[in-house]
What we know:
Radius of gyration: 25 Å
Helix content: 55-70%
Number of strands: 6
Order of helices and strands: HEHEHEEHEHHEHHHHHH
Strand content: 5-15%
Low-confidence stretches: 302-310
Shape: elongated
Distance between the termini: 37 Å
Largest sheet: 4 strands, antiparallel
Amino acid sequence: MELFKIKRDIPFMRYGRVTTTISLVTFILAILALSFKGLNLGLDFTGGIQIEVGYSQPANLDTVRKILEDQKLTEFSVQNIGSVKEVLIRLPMKPETNNARLSEMVLAKLKEQDAGVVLRSVEFVGPQVGQELFESGGLALMLVVAGIMAYLAVRFEWRFALAAIIANMHDIVIILGMFAFFQWEFTLPVLAGVLAILGYSVNESVVVFDRVRENFHLMRNTSVADMIDNAITVTMSRTVITHFMTQLMVLAMFFFGGEALHNFALALTIGIVFGIYSSVLVASPILLWLGVSRQDLMVKKESAEIDDLP
């Protein structure tokens, strides 16, 4: 399916140095934000108190937040869980505060506003659990990166794998850098979004790279730069349709998914935008500069055909 068809190839590679310079500057700024500000880790990683309460009618979350603010509590989150009558309150762990008394105080203040409030559960998440989650998330990220590199190296050639993973890590660092710069809360759903973008972004690179590989066999009297330009141009309609529909779904979560999905959708939005940019204007110029040639792919193709012989 094609939404539109471009008759002449767009010379993307002509501006490769400019686009990669912009990416490098953005990448460095993201690293600086992570180094000096750091991630604003949520309760999933730092530990805290989770209080679940029930109301006899739909709860007013703004009222609950106002009550917590009046008690000088900060860095809390309030969201519906299960239904509009069930509310989950999450508070950070404070060494100087008795956590049991803090939960009792919060419940008492909620009862002052609505006597029908019922305590469902109280859970204390220690920082040790948070540290384990953080380490497990980092390990998951490294395993995904290693798997993607191995897949691309086997399916294409090592230059393709290196170009794609550099572009993908560019996307991940940009997401983390923006969360660090603006101090948006980094939680497990956000980490899940980062991992999702890692796979989503590499899919775009695979589509372009697959077309590049075809062009090496079809466009024999054409330069590598022109082959890459053609590959990006002919897949552009597919790229626009795919990312537009995906972004519509993500925007629905962003605006209507509530607080629980807000930062998750925000991470996906940043990743989708930069995923398009990096696949076209980062991975492809790197592939060109790495010196991929028709001979490399022909050798790999012949090797694959020999392996398939009975």
